[in-house]
Write a structure and sequence with these properties.
By secondary structure, this protein is α/β, with parallel strands linked by helices. It is 25% helix and 28% strand. It has seven helices and eleven strands.
């Protein structure tokens, strides 16, 4: 299959997407019906090179043939990579990466949003035990992978942040998980998570994956840590005390 360039793009309020795919020799009309359009992860834009799969149908009012697109893939770049770049560009233009809140030097109450079944909690404990012994850690079990993970992360950020300014408020929130593929880490690339971080009044540290992994939450958060254990090293001052005020 050969790719074509998107032109004459119309994104209708009904949810339908109409456009033409063209190359140097010809063009063909295309439509993505609402059900399939809602499944697109990336934003349709003029000039994108796409490969589409679908069926040919006739648009009777104009006497034209068109492709009913069942699958739409960017050419030359993966769908997730394109979605990531588009969201990053949009959030940066909206100021989501600016105005970082300061991370407290001597935190006393730290909320950790991660899965309690992963290795992150044990990694955090090991580092914390060697450092600041006055910090108390509160772990809120959070989905960090899968279809419902983005809602879980965003909801739990809002919940912890709801204590801001009260005696039960937290000095900092850490969101994180261990390493994985781009698909595994994708919840931290979702706009709903970026919104929750940006709107939070409590400082947030994003500690997702390994050092080589970079996700959208890293850019929006007030601090990016290369790993969850590194987040604790960056957050807590050194101390000769070996005991941690741990409340997990």
């Amino acid at each position: 299959m050969r790719p074509g360039e998107v032109s004459n793009l119309t994104i209708h309020s009904s949810g339908f997407i109409f456009f033409s795919l063209k190359d140097s020799n010809s063009q063909v009309r295309c439509v993505i019906f609402k059900g399939n359009a809602s499944k697109l992860r990336f934003q349709m834009q003029e000039g994108l090179n796409l490969i589409v799969r679908g069926s040919v149908s006739a648009y009777i009012p104009r006497g034209e043939y068109q492709i009913n697109c069942l699958e739409v893939l960017p050419d030359g770049i993966g769908e997730l990579s394109l979605t990531y770049q588009q969201l990053k560009t949009s959030l940066q233009a909206r100021g989501y990466f600016d105005n970082k809140k300061p991370i407290p030097a001597f935190p006393k109450r730290v909320a950790v949003l991660t899965s309690i079944t992963g290795t992150v909690i044990e990694d955090i404990k090991k580092v914390a035990q060697k450092r600041w012994n006055l910090a108390k850690f509160f772990v809120l079990n959070t989905l960090v992978q899968g279809e419902k993970a983005k809602e879980s992360i965003a909801t739990n950020i809002a919940y912890i942040d709801s204590f801001f300014g009260t005696p039960k408020g937290f000095d900092v929130i850490i969101i994180g998980r261990g390493g994985g593929s781009m698909e595994d880490l994708w919840a931290f690339n979702e706009e709903i998570v970026a919104d929750a971080i940006y709107n939070a009044r409590t400082p947030i540290i994003s500690a997702v994956g390994h050092e080589s992994d970079t996700v959208i939450s890293d850019y929006v958060a007030d601090m990016r840590a290369p790993t969850p254990s590194a987040a604790i090293e960056m957050l807590l001052p050194t101390s000769k005390c070996s005991n941690t005020g741990d409340n997990t």
